[in-house]
Amino acid sequence: MYQIKFSLVLIVTFMLTVFSSFGQDKTIVKGVIIEDGSGSPVPYASVVVYSKTTNNVIKGTNTDYDGRFTLAVDSIDVYIAVSFIGFEKLEINNIDF
């Protein structure tokens, strides 16, 4: 009988690109979610942006088949949480806009 270990860290490589739009109050957050052990993209993972001051959900999305996501947020005082079934939830707090 084989034992499956789910002690993998969901993300080691989190490529985050942030763009500010001129004349608008939105900030675009783009990234790719990659599984630590294999380096493969994680399709359909949940990506949620939270307010650091209130801990309320601001916006959320799922990654596409290639592990990519894009979100437009109003605030820059945020953190991102990524989760997927069978993996540890990861919170990214040090986002530099």
Major sheet: 4 strands, antiparallel
Number of strands: 7
The 3D shape can be described as: globular
Using only C-alpha atoms, the radius of gyration works out to 14 Å
How many helical stretches? 0
Overall helicity:
under 10%
How are the SSEs placed, and which strands pair?
Layout: E1 13-20, E2 27-34, E3 46-51, E4 57-62, E5 68-73, E6 78-83, E7 90-92
Antiparallel strand pairs: 1-2, 2-5, 3-4, 3-6, 6-7
What can you tell me about this protein's structure?
With 97 residues, this protein is mostly beta strands. A four-stranded antiparallel beta sheet has the order 4-3-6-7, with no helix packed on it. A three-stranded antiparallel beta sheet has the order 1-2-5, with no helix packed on it. Helices cover 0% and strands 44% of the residues. It is globular.
